[in-house]
Amino acid sequence: MSLNKVMLIGNVTKDPEIRTTPTGQNVASFSVATNMNWTDQSGQKQSRAEFHNIVAWRKLADICGQYLHKGTKVYLEGRLQTRDWVAQDGTKKYRTEVIAETMQMLNRPGETQATPSQPDSFEDAVAAEGEEEIKIENIPF
């Protein structure tokens, strides 16, 4: 038995890029940042951002392209996939991506992108996210 499942809550770092494959399937690529907060041994608050490459296909790609924008808070479920290719200089490159299967926007109704109550830049988003720590008991699933 094996399991490949990813669940993320974070902020979109740039507007999704939509492309169409030669077979006519739409694909959206974007990045989501998550923030981990903790207090170190000396009592100082620490924060670390992780950036996740997201890929959505077909109808979900269309929805992501239409509704997600830089700064949007989003919940994603999917699976990890690593692809490889040979770069122009001949070196082998790897990229691990989250293949999104489910997406839910977490902004308040009517908010689709950064507003005065939301951060204007990703750095502000990471700082603001660091102010409110997500607790297990607050996650609705």
Description of the molecule:
The protein has a five-stranded mixed β-barrel with strand order 1-3-4-6-5. It has helices at 58-67, 122-131, and strands spanning 6-12, 17-20, 26-39, 45-57, 73-86, 92-105. It is globular, with a radius of gyration of 17 Å. With 141 residues, it is mainly beta. The protein has a single domain, classed as Nucleic acid-binding proteins (OB fold (Dihydrolipoamide Acetyltransferase, E2P), Beta Barrel), CATH 2.40.50.
Summarize the structure in short.
By secondary structure, the chain is mostly beta strands.
Features:
141 residues; OB fold (Dihydrolipoamide Acetyltransferase, E2P); mainly beta; five-stranded mixed β-barrel; globular
Question: Which helices and strands occur, and which strands form pairs?
Answer:
Blueprint: E1 6-12, E2 17-20, E3 26-39, E4 45-57, H1 58-67, E5 73-86, E6 92-105, H2 122-131
Parallel strand pairs: 4-6
Antiparallel strand pairs: 1-3, 1-5, 2-3, 3-4, 5-6
Major sheet: order of its strands? 1-3-4-6-5
CATH architecture: Beta Barrel
H/E series: EEEEHEEH
The CATH homologous superfamily corresponds to: Nucleic acid-binding proteins
Count of helix runs = 2
Please name the CATH topology.
OB fold (Dihydrolipoamide Acetyltransferase, E2P)
Work out the radius of gyration.
Answer: 17 Å
> What distance lies between the first and last C-alpha atoms, to the nearest angstrom?
24 Å
> Can you identify the CATH class?
Mainly Beta
Overall 3D shape = globular
Secondary structure class reads mainly beta
